[in-house]
Amino acid sequence: xxxxxxxxxxxxxxxxxxxxxxxxxxxxxxxxxxxxxxxxxxxxxxxxxxxxxxxxxxxxxxxxxxxxxxxxxxxxxxxxxxxxxxxxxxxxxxxxxxxxxxxxxxxxxxxxxxxxxxxxxxxxxxxxxxxxxxxxxxxxxxxxxxxxxxxxxxxxxxxxxxxxxxxxxxxxxxxxxxxxxxxxxxxxxxxxxxxxxxxxxxxxxxxxxxxxxxxxxxxxxxxxxxxxxxxxxxxxxxxxxxxxxxxxxxxxxxxxxxxxxxxxxxxxxxxxxxxxxxxxxxxxxxxxxxxxxxxxxxxxxxxxxxxxxxxxxxxxxxxxxxxxxxxxxxxxxxxxxxxxxxxxxxxxxxxxxxxxxxxxxxxxxxxx
Length: 368
Known about the structure:
Strand order of the largest sheet: 1-2-4-3
Shape: globular
Order of helices and strands: HHHHHHHEEHEEEHEHHEEEEHHH
Strand content: 5-15%
Largest sheet: 4 strands, antiparallel
Number of helices: 14
Number of domains: 3
Helix content: 40-55%
């Protein structure tokens, strides 16, 4: 006999998705009002409905769980996109403003990020680069949608648009946040660590909302390269389809280490990965978090994605960033031999860039 909580969840599912199994289960709970169901779901549910159904371990519900998971993946994939709210004239105004900055010799940093006011729009903040910024904007938009109605979540700026010019300049357009960085707002170091740890922990906890087909960048752009400090200049030479492909890449790089004991097989690398899929943040600095009366804000999503667990440990303790190490320890992480063993392999990549590694071009590295 299912308890009332179970029945209410199933009823909400039945009335919200037009699938026949849900309609059959709806007959179990016709006496429960829709308003009660929505309130219970909003207040009590902390996981996707398919995950909740799976935890019930009721064999009879397996077909329902499967359908719920498919519906969840469809919705999650639709969230891996970027709004396109600006019109062509507004795009032209942004491009013209960039050209005026170039003419005034504003410097590289001044042209990489700049505020802008457009008629009828809230104050805007523009990120500009000469690479495809769509993946970063997609990641930011994905987490913004998860956080916007959750009062307990960190704040994430709303993305309005991402586009490129005919000259190849790429732009991400988002709301401008009136706030200071954790390094400039005058709070004690311990409080800054607590706030950053809270934000990173929330990011990591969102893994159930990421489609299980996603590995690397959280984006619909399958070929978007991974950004992580393990790689040369923080950028991998390409996308990795799955953990095994990444392990082959790391193993191949390790063969160039001078000491034989640092050379690892693909299986050894896979064993060192820990969990295959974890949300990571590999650029944990005070400058990448803002603070105002609304709470702590996450503002850099280029270095956020899905990789094996060891890459988060590496980001905490093997990048030479003391603040990141403090955040890692706050979250219960510790330096590990596994992450330490990746340091000389990263050194190889810093020297050769990984692009010249032969297996990067072998068939095993092609997406299927």
